[in-house]
Amino acid sequence: MVRRDQREKGAFYLRGLLLAGRRKSMQPMAERLGIDHQQLQQFMTSSTWPVGDVRARLAWRAVRVVRPQVWVVDDTGFPKDGTASPGVARQYSGTLGKVGNCQIGVSVHAASDTASCPLSWRLFLPTAWDTPKAAARRRACRIPDGERHRPKWELALEMLDELDGHGLRPAALVADTGYGANADFRHGLEDRGLAYVLQAKGEMTAHAEGCEPHQPAYGGLGPRPLPRYRTRPLSLRGHVLAAGRHHGRTLTWRKGSKAAMSSHFVLLHVSLAGRFSIRWMRSGPA
Fold first, then answer.
1. Regarding beta strands 70-79 and 173-175, do their DSSP bridges make them parallel or antiparallel, or are they unpaired?
2. In the beta sheet, which residues pair with residue 73?
3. pLDDT tens for residues 112-150?
4. Beta carbons within 8 Å of 143's beta carbon, 6+ residues apart
5. What is the C-alpha to C-alpha distance for residues 274 and 244, in angstroms, rounded to an integer?
């Protein structure tokens, strides 16, 4: 930041986030810092400083310190009491483990066995914030007119593109079923040439290794027919059960708070139904 007053207010804001205290909104932080909360408010809402440059420098610094083995895409819920905070709504939060009044932040984290640090965040806007009833709240929160509801997987891909533009790419990316079960997200990772390990749902269907799609003959009229399999796909759970417990092995990956963390896994090569170019490495507890 070029201006001295911006650097000072930025330091105040960062110190307020790091100090003890449950509430991290402007007024509680200002009280703990012993300053007027309007200084923090102006810094975050009115002051012009290069957000992208700051994000890039922080992301590079985090990668150098964490030395990540993977990047993690996830979303986090922030409980709220009122309705004034941008993006707040009654929605499901994995953090809460239930539907609650909260904001949802989508993040990309750099992670290793010993550390984790966010590289980028996006605020998720529920569809309720696109309705005419939310117009007053949008103005109060200064949400740009062009910023509308977008699915979480789309926000995640946007962050990955932004980080790639800063010269940062993951060795591998991991995410839970909220992202792994979404075909658009998987296709987006493949189109970007990113390696990934994603949690899948047991009811997702796939074809066994060795099954090849058949290309029907083209009759000369209309669009060419798409390739299709001659056999029906089986659920991922069905594939694991068919392989049997003897097909797997027990793996221990690290020490937990009480004992070593281990489970029995079955590794199978399958092709997810719906797109013929995917070769899916599926690992799951037997």
1. parallel
2. 108, 175
3. 988 999 999 999 999 999 999 999 999 999 899 999 999
4. 86, 125, 129
5. 25
What's the angle, vertex CA 232, arms to CA 210 and CA 213, rounded to 5?
A: 45
Domain boundaries along the sequence of the chain: 1-49, 51-198, 205-210+227-285
The residue among 113, 107, 4 whose CA lies nearest residue 59 is: 107
Q: How many of the other CB atoms lie within 10 Å of CB of 167? A: 10
Q: In the numeric block, which tokens belong to residue 163?
A: 């980080």
What pTM does this model have? 0.82
**Which phi and psi angles does 190 have, rounded to 5°?**
-65, -40
Q: What is the total residue count of the chain?
A: 286
Class of domain 51-198: alpha beta
3-state SS class at 156: helix
- Here the tokens at position 85 are 């905070």
Residues 6+ apart with CB under 8 A from 92: 98, 99
- In the chain the first and final C-alpha atoms are separated, in Å, by 54
Lookup: tokens for 232: 């029906």
Cβ-contact 126, 102 below 8 angstroms: no
Structure tokens belonging to residue 239: 């594939």
